[in-house]
Amino acid sequence: MLSGRLWYVALALTLLAGMAIFAWTNPSYEKGFEAKWYYLLGEYDRAYDLAKEAYELDRYNRMAFTVMTQTAVARRFIDYIKEGEAYLKTIEEIADRPPISDADKIRIKMICEVMMDRYATLTPTKLTDKELVKEARAMYERFKTLHDSIFKGIS
């Protein structure tokens, strides 16, 4: 009875060791693990490139596909945040040279509306970095507050 259980434990450990050796020696999984590491470090561009390479080597590498998909989502959030910062800088430049013309007000309104609409298209997943989601939400709130304070009652 005991030797039967030991045999099953030995078989299970052998299978696990074989799976680990396969994963660490297979180029696709090796790149997949590296991509996951870069994803966890927040280096999304490098993670995406490695995950894409790993997925192209083996279409059944689900980890590579997941990392590739998640980095694409994270990059959309990063792009939104960077674009928001650039737009805020533009709005600051407009505000620094008063008086603000009607054309500039319309430009600011359009920028705010574009950023608010773009935020609605961002869809985080359970694996998306919470800090990125929080930063994007804060950026959205800045544009919403700006829009509401400047254009309250104006359509």
Helix-strand blueprint:
Layout: H1 2-25, H2 27-41, H3 44-57, H4 62-95, H5 102-121, H6 130-151
Shape: elongated
Low-confidence stretches: none
Number of E strands = 0
The portion of residues forming beta strands comes to under 5%
> What is the string of helix and strand elements?
HHHHHH
Content-based structural category:
mainly alpha
**Cα gyration radius (Å):** 24 Å
User: Average pLDDT across residues?
Assistant: 85
The largest sheet, given as strand count, sense and whether it forms a barrel, is: none
Number of helices: 6
Q: Considering DSSP H and I runs of 4 or more, what fraction of the residues is helical?
A: over 70%
Q: Gap between N and C termini, in Å?
A: 80 Å
Can you tell me about this structure?
The model has no long low-confidence stretch (mean pLDDT 85). It is elongated, with a radius of gyration of 24 Å. α2 runs parallel beside α4, α3 runs antiparallel to α4 and α4 packs antiparallel against α5. It is mostly helical and 155 residues long. It is built from 6 helices and no strands. It has helices at 2-25, 27-41, 44-57, 62-95, 102-121, 130-151.
Q: Which terms summarize this structure?
A:
155 residues, mainly alpha, 0% strand, elongated
Summarize the structure.
By secondary structure, the chain is mainly alpha-helical.
